[in-house]
Design a protein that fits this description.
Layout (H helix, E strand, L loop, with lengths): L13 E3 L9 H5 L17 H10 L1 H14 L3 H15 L5 H18 L2 E5 H10 L5 E5 L5 H12 L6 E5 H4 L4 H7 L2 E4 L7 H17 L4 E2 L18 H11 L7 E9 L5 H8 L9 H6 L10 E6 L3 E2 H7 L20 H20 L5 H15 L6 H17 L10 H14 L4 E3 L5 E3 L21 H17 L3 H15 L6 E2 L1 H14 L1 H4 L6 H14 L3 E3 L5 E3 L3 H28 L4 E2 H18 L10 H13 L3 E6 L2 E6 L1 H12 L8 H8 L3
Parallel strand pairs: 2-8, 3-6, 3-7, 4-5, 4-6
Antiparallel strand pairs: 1-2, 7-8, 7-9, 10-11, 12-14, 13-14, 15-17, 16-17
Helix pairs in contact: 2-10, 3-10, 4-10, 10-11, 11-15, 12-19, 16-17, 16-19, 17-18, 20-21, 20-23, 20-24, 24-25, 24-26, 24-27, 25-26
Membrane topology: Peripheral membrane protein
Pfam families: Acyltransferase, GPAT_C
Protein name: Dihydroxyacetone phosphate acyltransferase
Length: 687
């Protein structure tokens, strides 16, 4: 067997760092003599306060203040005070007593709610070996509010200086918690800067000062926000580009970026995410809300896995791209540096590499595989599966996923698989249950307590019946989605092969052309990077050949293989996305010849999906997801099937009829049909 796609990672490399905390004093552990390793050692010492003063004195910021003073006819002294208040709003503090108390609280919570915090010690030792000579950036995946506090605890455990953490202003406004987080090394950034050049310059200079003069690593989430779907989001480039400017202008010799994956057995916000995807707005972050959330501490959340990918050297990546740094000259000093087109594309490339490494370092759990099986049984209309069927299918799916390169936390052997399945069901008892006849069924999750004022909804006000069916299925999809990184390429190839009309075989060139159309259409759904299309296509075909899903022919063409079970499963994984995207395309054709706002379009598409779901034309409730509809709109805009307009400060979308019709027709031929009995099975599978 070709070993290219098999993982070289091992679950044995992960150590439960909570294990040694049982039976010992948490207070004494957090009070230990702590001499942390610095990410970037300097010959000079700095402090959070000194950094803010240095930023205030920097030539670039002074130049912007002078410009603003002339343009707005405001005294420079007043603008200096404005910048000081901006820097006070942004800047972090480092108070070790606060960090210790916060760590003590977290340790108590983890021991009460988790079955283990597993860290790949081989990978973190590799990171430690490259720290010290240049700035370091930690780039974790973002699936929960717990991500950044877990990262800080792990750094404390391994005696790494607590990173300077980029946090949103949502936390800044929380009474007490805003101060606690700031004192624990969080610095705050606004979600958007708009045309506020003064704020943008102050923030940019502050970030660059953290890079050049900071002793601790900088930590930020390259996706920009939590992923409600548990899939990777398309990376954001603004903050990353700020951190890379000191390298591009020669102020630092290199920057080390460490992609990090944090995988959760069970996500703390699972039900909130499901409602958000269906249009119910998230609760505003507040200290009182945090206190109410403590009720969740009576639940068990299984294991948490943290893996540090191979550190990326920005200098090596820059050389790999054949680029030369544009070092400052008297005519173009470093404080006025603007990214060139090549440097901008380099930032895009680095961002996608970070996301790719995050994906490759995930840990797949038993419940991730159970979710695929439950999803498959719903779409097949086979009803709730028996426990022994679930165990057998988890064992089979584990072998498939391992061929595709996934690391699965299930030991080999039927007995071990059954134990893992039962443990997963126990952890997720609020979502699934075993009946007296040993069938695995979904539990009714939606209650009237989750009703909100329809005026506050981001989408269409759906019926209680629809919500009752949709919420548990969206939650199941949340746990299925982490597997899609490994399955999406093979699934897209299989989809094209399945719809060859009367042809049995296809050339690689024609297959790639069809594959690439789907890949471009789903680019924002799965964070695809266009530059890697051919490589990912070749990998997917090789993997499918290994799994007997496709076969090469004597005429150097490809045809479907005999592994029908896996073919059907891969097609079923794509079902909600095909249904959702096709509905968006069809509705845009009917309604958006005139410019229309995104909120109105999302409301209309969600209403239409609900109608089609009720009539059995659409089978999967995940097609109701507003995030999916928004991603479809972004992709159609990139494909020039929709125009994005700005009028009177509003963003509007207008269909380009001919191109949109072409996309709709291409997509329409890929819809995978099931027997309508599947819909009935879906309804009765809810307890």
């Amino acid at each position: 067997m070709n070993m290219e796609f098999e993982t070289t990672r091992s679950i044995q490399a992960f150590k439960d760092i909570l294990c040694d905390r049982y039976g010992t004093s948490d207070f004494m552990w957090m009070s230990q003599n702590w001499q942390p390793r610095l990410a970037h050692q300097h010959t000079f010492k700095t402090s959070p306060q000194k950094m803010k003063l240095d930023v205030l004195k920097c030539p670039r910021l002074q130049h912007v203040i002078e410009e603003a003073s002339e343009d707005q006819e405001v005294p420079k002294e007043q603008l200096y005070k404005t910048v000081q208040s901006i820097l006070d709003e942004i800047g972090y503090n480092r108070r070790l007593p606060v960090i210790r108390w916060l760590g003590l609280l977290l340790l108590k919570v983890l021991k009460r709610t988790c079955n283990g915090l597993y860290v790949n010690e081989t990978s973190i030792n590799r990171v430690l070996s490259v720290m010290g000579d240049n700035p370091v950036i930690f780039a974790p995946s973002h699936r929960s509010y717990g991500d950044f506090i877990l990262m800080s605890y792990i750094c404390f455990h391994y005696k790494i200086e607590i990173p300077a953490i980029a946090a949103g202003m949502d936390f800044h406004s929380m009474w007490l918690m805003g101060h606690v987080l700031r004192d624990s090394c969080a610095f705050f950034m606004r979600r958007s800067f708009g045309s506020d050049k003064l704020y943008w310059t102050a923030f940019s200079e502050y970030v660059q000062k953290l890079v050049t003069d900071g002793e601790a690593a900088i930590e930020f989430f390259i996706e920009g926000t939590r992923s409600r779907t548990a899939k990777s989001l398309m990376p954001k480039f603004g903050f990353l580009s700020m951190t890379l400017v000191p390298f591009l202008t020669g102020r630092v010799p290199d920057i080390t970026i460490v992609p990090i994956n944090i995988s959760y057995d069970r996500t703390l916000e699972e039900i909130l995410f499901a409602y958000e995807l269906l249009g119910v707005p998230k609760p505003k972050e507040s200290t009182s809300g945090l206190i109410k959330a403590l009720n969740m501490l009576n639940e068990r959340y299984g294991k948490v896995y943290v893996d540090f990918a191979e550190p990326l050297s920005v200098r090596e990546l820059f050389q790999l791209n054949g680029l030369q740094r544009s070092l400052p000259t008297p005519e173009s000093p470093q404080d006025q540096h603007t990214l060139s087109a090549n440097e901008t594309m380099f930032c895009v490339d680095v961002a996608h590499r970070v996301v790719q490494q995050q994906q490759r370092h995930s840990v797949i759990t038993a419940f991730n595989l159970i979710s695929i099986i439950l999803n498959n049984s719903v779409l097949e209309g086979s009803g709730p599966p028996l426990l022994n069927e679930v165990v057998a299918n988890v064992s089979w799916l584990k072998s498939v996923m391992e061929v595709l390169g996934a690391l699965i936390d299930i030991q080999d052997g039927p007995v071990n698989v059954e134990v893992a399945v039962k443990e997963a069901i126990a952890v997720h008892k609020s979502l699934v249950t075993l009946t007296p006849t040993n069938h695995l069924k979904l539990i009714k999750v939606h209650t009237t307590a989750h009703r909100v004022n329809p005026a506050k909804l981001k989408g269409h006000s759906m019926s209680e019946h629809t919500m009752g069916v949709a919420v548990p299925m969206v939650m199941i999809q949340h746990y299925l989605n982490p597997c899609l990184h490994y399955l999406i390429g093979p699934a897209l190839v299989t989809l094209v092969m399945w719809h060859l009309d009367d042809a049995v075989e296809i050339t690689r060139g024609d297959l790639f052309q069809n594959f690439n159309f789907l890949r471009l259409l789903f680019a924002y759904e799965f964070a695809f990077y266009a530059a890697w299309a051919e490589k990912e296509f070749d990998d997917a075909v090789k993997q499918l050949e290994m799994l007997s899903v496709v076969e090469p022919t004597k005429s150097d063409r490809l045809k479907l293989g005999n592994h029908r079970k896996l073919q059907i499963l891969l097609l079923n994984l794509l079902q909600p996305f095909l249904e959702g995207y096709l509905t968006v395309c069809q509705l845009l054709q009917q309604t958006a010849s005139d410019p229309c706002s995104e909120s109105l379009l999302l409301t209309s598409t969600q209403r239409r999906v609900e109608e089609l779901l009720g009539s059995g034309i659409i089978l999967h409730p995940y097609a109701l997801s507003l995030d999916m509809h928004s991603a479809a709109l972004q992709a159609l805009t990139a494909l020039q099937a929709v125009n994005r307009l700005k009028r009177n400060g509003m963003v509007l979308y207008q269909a380009q009829t001919r191109k949109l019709l072409e996309v709709t027709q291409k997509l329409g031929k890929y819809k995978f049909c099931h027997d309508l009995s599947a819909v009935i099975s879906l309804f009765i599978s809810i307890v």
